[in-house]
Amino acid sequence: MSERLDPRDRAGRQPVELVEQTEPAGRAERAGPFEPNEPAGPFDQGEPDELDEMDEMDEPFERDEMAELLKLVERIEPVERAGVTRPGATTRTRVKEVTPGAVRDRRDDLATEEPLEIRIQAGESRRTVAITMRTPGHDFELAAGFLYGEGMVTPGGIDRIGYCTDEDVTPEARYNIVTVRLHGELPELPGLDRHFMTSSACGICGTASLDALHDRCSPLPLQAGLRVAPETLYGLPRRLRESQGVFGKTGGLHAAGLFTPDGELVTLREDVGRHNAVDKLVGWALMGEGLPLGGHILMVSGRSSYEIMQKALTAGLPIVCSVSAPSSLAVDLAREFGMTLVGFLREERFNIYAGAHRIEA
């Protein structure tokens, strides 16, 4: 994987603080998924003390050394300390497996789905702006990416992100609430007049139409020098699948991968929701001062929906590929804003629905 957008490579800058002043009682060890071959930047939500120690080291870890260190603090399974269980990326269950002539009990691993409440705060003012069903892991990136995609924050607008520390919230629930502290005042947006409720399947329902999207987004530049060979696109689904660590265990997660025009995987995020995976990826770039993402390719599992195209547009991503079909509104958005949309990317075939000038075909 490329390290060009790794936040640690930006002259030691850490634009967003990721630690609340007080930690939740009974704080458990980190239980998020381990991303193979990818060093964890300061925006992965490990333990605050662990993050501070890694950021203050004089000499950076080599990739293999970092991976070995993270294996000590990351867990796929939920962990329990002081009676508080923090949800992990997978959940164990028992199933009856039926095959011709046999039925047997066995253990199975499911992709965890838990609610995440996203709050924004400026000074003493605080609002809940979304409750989304997600797979635990990279929660801070998810919150930041969601807020950025909805136009509620701008690059440099986030002061601090942390889990809930309210005493009136049970310890079990604190890992399902993220507070994003902003510089300045709370934004005055119509979307804040009601609580968003999102599912892991459809994203935000009833958000901005194409007309409203024009108010904050402009069509992407033509980028005459950006052209991708079909052979490069052919390999993206395989590279995406091979890098999905949690999917290999559960078979139940979507992924969003960021690629270079040469097909090199920069980073990848997984979630039960396609749109959540994209939010995590955009949040990673936002918090590492890596936006906009022009000159990159977004590859998603499943289909390309309007929500995914909207999030890609706000991040400046010119090319979006998926293994399945796009929706009609996704195609409309791509054509109206100058994006390249590729669907049914499987083996050695694909359809171009918009922006064919960026594909060497």
TrEMBL record:
Gene3D superfamilies: 3.10.20.10, Cytidine Deaminase, domain 2. It is found in: Cytoplasm. Mo-bis(molybdopterin guanine dinucleotide) binds at F344, L345, R346, E347, E348, R349. The keyword Cytoplasm applies. The keyword Cell cycle does not apply. Keywords: Cytoplasm, Molybdenum cofactor biosynthesis. Residues 1-56 are annotated as: Disordered. It holds the Pfam family FdhD-NarQ. The active site is at C202 (cysteine persulfide intermediate). Residues 46-56 have a biased composition (Acidic residues). Residues 1-12 have a biased composition (Basic and acidic residues). It comes from the Bacteria. Required for formate dehydrogenase (FDH) activity. Acts as a sulfur carrier protein that transfers sulfur from IscS to the molybdenum cofactor prior to its insertion into FDH. Belongs to the FdhD family. This is Sulfur carrier protein FdhD. The gene is fdhD.
